[in-house]
Design the sequence.
């Protein structure tokens, strides 16, 4: 793990988004917006699934805007007949993105908003494969404004991701999780694809930022900030998210995605670089209370992790070396288990044996919420007075920062 930059790993993992679409003409846009006004609270979804599909039904399921809650709620289910389906007279009190789920874990994203929505699904074209969402596949959505815009956005990404220049990088992305068991091999392959993956990711990020800013009065914009690349602050730093939020049109007030970002922004302004952290206290494995203030006078790396997080655990050997190197200079590490499962946490501590102080968040995840944790690992480097001097430093970036602080 010595030369692994987890931030780079996260960036590479981002790149599997594909969708096709066509340019939105002024006339089409006007027609779609008129459709929403005419059918003020009613939506219908008609669609076709190309090719063979396992199963004979398709469901609309919720996408939870609460990033701590990944439960799945089914809104409606209809039969598939020769690959065709239709959901009629859906009452829409809260416009939002939903999943059309079929064939066990296969799904595609659709924006549930008033109007007639048309969907053409291509089940053989995989976009994402994730352990909690299943397999998301490609689709073309038309008929309402957010669906058409989302299809356009995904189409631009698709053109980049499937270009011959980036084919090998995409193949590497798909095997990334399998390589966590062999970090030497992972490190070697990351260096091999470093330049080309950076070029691709820069192009994808430009498309995303341009879209978010251009369509800052449509709910698809905060949706993309939140969900498009697994966890939104994997892709953007706090300042970028705050800038997006500050530019949003007032018409988005009350939208569930806007409100989720608002919660993040409020918390981020309390945990930004330069902010002195409020004190907190949590229990260690022996039930003893450990407070942040007990580390005053030292530089501290606060490391949020969980027993099930492979990148978190893989970082332990490197953190061990850094602690050994800088401990006499006044450097310490405070590990915080963001997952309150105490039994599994203790098993992980017994297995990996980190030497630094370890505490666990409570069932309400009070401290994780205080720090606005929405991804793992997340780290905060604080100075002797408890002021945040850096966020999310890993491997070489953390090495360089500590070298600057301690001079060796």
Sequence:
């Amino acid at each position: 793990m010595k030369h692994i930059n987890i931030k780079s790993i996260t960036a590479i993992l981002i790149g599997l988004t594909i969708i096709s679409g066509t340019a939105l003409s002024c006339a089409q846009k006007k027609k779609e917006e008129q459709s929403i006004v005419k059918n003020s609270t009613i939506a219908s979804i008609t669609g076709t699934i190309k090719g063979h599909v396992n199963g004979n039904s398709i469901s609309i399921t919720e996408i939870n805007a609460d990033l701590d809650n990944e439960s799945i709620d089914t809104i409606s289910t209809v039969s598939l007949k020769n690959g065709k389906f239709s959901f009629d007279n859906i009452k829409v009190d809260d416009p939002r993105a939903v999943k059309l789920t079929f064939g066990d874990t296969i799904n595609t994203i659709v924006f549930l908003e008033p109007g007639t929505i048309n969907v053409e699904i291509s089940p053989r074209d995989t976009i994402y494969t994730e352990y909690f969402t299943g397999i998301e596949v490609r689709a073309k959505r038309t008929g309402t404004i957010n669906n058409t815009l989302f299809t356009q956005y995904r189409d631009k990404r698709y053109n980049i991701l499937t270009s011959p220049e980036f084919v090998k990088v995409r193949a590497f992305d798909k095997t990334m999780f399998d390589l966590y068991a062999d970090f030497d091999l992972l490190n070697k392959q990351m260096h091999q694809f470093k330049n080309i993956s950076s070029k691709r990711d820069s192009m994808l990020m430009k498309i995303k930022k341009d879209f978010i800013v251009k369509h800052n009065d449509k709910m698809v914009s905060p949706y993309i900030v939140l969900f498009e690349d697994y966890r939104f602050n994997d892709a953007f730093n706090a300042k970028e998210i705050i800038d997006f939020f500050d530019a949003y049109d007032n018409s988005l007030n009350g939208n569930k995605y806007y409100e989720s970002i608002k919660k993040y922004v409020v918390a981020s302004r309390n945990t930004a670089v330069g902010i002195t952290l409020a004190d907190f206290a949590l229990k260690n494995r022996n039930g003893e209370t450990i407070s942040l203030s007990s580390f005053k006078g030292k530089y501290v790396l606060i490391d949020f992790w969980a027993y099930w997080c492979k990148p978190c655990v893989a970082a332990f050997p490197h953190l061990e070396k850094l602690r050994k190197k800088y401990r006499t200079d006044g450097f310490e590490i405070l590990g915080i288990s963001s997952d309150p499962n105490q039994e599994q946490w203790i098993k992980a501590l017994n297995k990996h044996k980190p030497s630094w102080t370890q505490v666990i968040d409570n069932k309400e995840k009070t401290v994780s919420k205080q720090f606005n944790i929405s991804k793992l690992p997340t780290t905060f480097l604080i100075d002797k007075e408890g002021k945040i001097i850096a966020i999310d430093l890993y491997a070489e970036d953390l090495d360089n920062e500590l070298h600057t602080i301690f001079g060796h």
